[in-house]
Amino acid sequence: MAERDPPRNIAVDAATAELAQQLAAALGVSLAEAVHAALADSLAAKVPAPASAPKRRPAVEILEELWRDFPPSRGGVASTDKAFFDELSGEL
Protein backbone atom coordinates (compact mmCIF):
# COMPACT_ATOMS: atom_id res chain seq x y z
CA MET A 1 0.00 0.00 0.00
CA ALA A 2 1.38 3.40 -0.93
CA GLU A 3 2.37 5.80 1.82
CA ARG A 4 0.12 8.85 2.03
CA ASP A 5 -0.25 11.71 4.42
CA PRO A 6 -2.84 10.62 6.99
CA PRO A 7 -5.85 12.81 7.51
CA ARG A 8 -5.22 15.27 10.29
CA ASN A 9 -8.76 15.30 11.61
CA ILE A 10 -11.43 12.66 11.45
CA ALA A 11 -14.92 13.82 12.34
CA VAL A 12 -16.53 11.55 14.93
CA ASP A 13 -19.60 11.81 17.06
CA ALA A 14 -19.43 12.35 20.82
CA ALA A 15 -20.05 8.68 21.65
CA THR A 16 -17.17 7.54 19.40
CA ALA A 17 -14.85 10.17 20.86
CA GLU A 18 -15.75 8.99 24.38
CA LEU A 19 -15.05 5.35 23.45
CA ALA A 20 -11.67 6.34 22.00
CA GLN A 21 -10.79 8.29 25.16
CA GLN A 22 -11.83 5.37 27.38
CA LEU A 23 -9.73 2.95 25.35
CA ALA A 24 -6.72 5.28 25.47
CA ALA A 25 -7.05 5.57 29.25
CA ALA A 26 -7.47 1.81 29.67
CA LEU A 27 -4.41 1.08 27.53
CA GLY A 28 -2.38 3.94 28.95
CA VAL A 29 -1.56 5.29 25.49
CA SER A 30 -2.31 8.39 23.46
CA LEU A 31 -5.63 8.84 21.70
CA ALA A 32 -3.98 8.29 18.31
CA GLU A 33 -2.31 5.06 19.50
CA ALA A 34 -5.60 3.79 20.93
CA VAL A 35 -7.46 4.46 17.68
CA HIS A 36 -4.64 2.84 15.70
CA ALA A 37 -4.69 -0.27 17.92
CA ALA A 38 -8.47 -0.55 17.70
CA LEU A 39 -8.45 -0.22 13.92
CA ALA A 40 -5.58 -2.71 13.53
CA ASP A 41 -7.29 -5.26 15.79
CA SER A 42 -10.60 -4.84 13.98
CA LEU A 43 -8.96 -5.21 10.58
CA ALA A 44 -7.01 -8.29 11.68
CA ALA A 45 -10.26 -9.90 12.87
CA LYS A 46 -12.03 -9.24 9.55
CA VAL A 47 -9.30 -9.67 6.92
CA PRO A 48 -7.20 -12.83 6.80
CA ALA A 49 -3.47 -12.31 6.87
CA PRO A 50 -1.72 -12.87 3.53
CA ALA A 51 -0.10 -16.25 3.11
CA SER A 52 3.51 -16.04 4.11
CA ALA A 53 6.20 -16.85 1.61
CA PRO A 54 7.65 -20.33 1.87
CA LYS A 55 10.77 -20.59 3.98
CA ARG A 56 13.87 -20.28 1.85
CA ARG A 57 16.48 -22.98 2.15
CA PRO A 58 20.19 -22.21 2.00
CA ALA A 59 21.79 -22.95 -1.38
CA VAL A 60 24.28 -25.32 0.25
CA GLU A 61 21.44 -27.44 1.59
CA ILE A 62 19.80 -27.61 -1.85
CA LEU A 63 23.07 -28.52 -3.56
CA GLU A 64 23.84 -31.23 -1.01
CA GLU A 65 20.40 -32.74 -1.63
CA LEU A 66 20.96 -32.66 -5.42
CA TRP A 67 24.41 -34.24 -5.10
CA ARG A 68 22.96 -36.94 -2.84
CA ASP A 69 20.11 -37.69 -5.28
CA PHE A 70 22.19 -37.27 -8.44
CA PRO A 71 25.83 -37.97 -7.59
CA PRO A 72 28.44 -36.70 -10.04
CA SER A 73 29.90 -39.37 -12.35
CA ARG A 74 33.29 -40.78 -11.43
CA GLY A 75 34.64 -40.38 -14.97
CA GLY A 76 34.47 -36.63 -14.69
CA VAL A 77 33.22 -34.21 -17.27
CA ALA A 78 36.12 -34.57 -19.72
CA SER A 79 35.19 -38.08 -20.95
CA THR A 80 31.57 -37.09 -21.47
CA ASP A 81 32.53 -33.88 -23.23
CA LYS A 82 34.99 -35.62 -25.57
CA ALA A 83 32.33 -37.98 -26.93
CA PHE A 84 29.89 -35.11 -27.31
CA PHE A 85 32.35 -32.87 -29.16
CA ASP A 86 33.62 -35.75 -31.31
CA GLU A 87 30.06 -36.35 -32.46
CA LEU A 88 29.58 -32.65 -33.21
CA SER A 89 32.73 -32.47 -35.27
CA GLY A 90 31.94 -35.65 -37.18
CA GLU A 91 34.72 -37.72 -35.67
CA LEU A 92 33.43 -41.05 -34.44
Written description of the protein model:
With 92 residues, this protein is an all-alpha fold. It contains 4 helices and no strands. The two termini are 63 Å apart. The model has no long low-confidence stretch (mean pLDDT 81).
Q: Can you lay out the helices and strands and say which pair or pack?
A:
Layout: H1 14-27, H2 31-46, H3 59-69, H4 76-89
User: Which stretches are poorly predicted, pLDDT < 50 over at least 5 residues?
Assistant: none
Helix proportion range: 55-70%
Structural class: mainly alpha
Beta-strand fraction estimate: under 5%
Coarse shape: rod-shaped
Q: Biggest sheet, in brief?
A: none
Distance N to C terminus:
63 Å
Q: From N to C, what is the helix and strand string?
A: HHHH
In a nutshell, what does this entry contain?
By secondary structure, the chain is mostly helical. It contains four helices and no strands. The longest helix is centred in the middle third of the chain and has 16 residues, at 31-46.
What keywords describe this structure?
92 residues, 60% helix, rod-shaped, mainly alpha
